[in-house]
User: Fold this.
Amino acid sequence: MANKVAILTGASAGIGEAAARSLAREGFTLVLAARRADKLEALAKEIEGRGGRALAVPTDLASEEETRALVRRAMEAFGRIDLLVNNAGYGKAGPLELLTRDDARRQFEVNLFATLQLCAEVAPIMRAQGGGRILNVSSGSAKLATPMVGLYCATKGALELATDALRVELAPWNIDVVLVLPGTIATEAFVIAQEDSAHLLADTKSVYHPYMLGIQALLNKKLKIARPPAILGDTIARAAVAPRPKVRYIAPWEAWLMVRLVPLIPARWIDRLLIRAVERNAVHS
Assistant:
């Protein structure tokens, strides 16, 4: 993939950081985007130290102008864009009743609106080049809505449907649009979500308090069996270089199992299982 240029969002940690290393090994020149400039610069320096090429572009994807500037910087530096990996994601946990419109807006801005804007920015560039590839990183949460993270699930569900539409819309110009669907991966995103929701958890008088503690306990159990980000980094690289990519890449295998089984289970059964799991772990004072 020599001379191929890739924009990668959410590149400062977790899946994005792992994907950057995997794509660099495949020969991609990388434009790394995230909010944390120090981590981006360190990653770019690491990649270049191994003989690769990387440009760090600190970007807040909640800003329409910064999102637009990311594509502009990539074109100014390298003159082309062959791959866009929309990996950045943000989630704030909490019951839907207690989350504000601003909470919802922030999650949709990063997880959906910025992704769609980047797709729209790179589409004419890729069309003029004769083709390209877009990888949108979703989540198992798009397939199974979980209490206390309903907004995040909604953003990923919307992203999946938008990706399906975009795949058909851009097909006439040889632009592949692929969905990458991860299972439970050990990343900082879980820690950040808990930190941003700490004020809700601190309200011991809330009727939701015992159940939020229950969800937190379930999450901590889940993280103990979470897979390392490198698994998804390699999956993203495979999707990037495949001559004829699949519509969906699902990893690890547990995620594939969930994606296939959940639609076969009656919704009321799933509801009961989730309610029991939350109540079993709820901490009542």
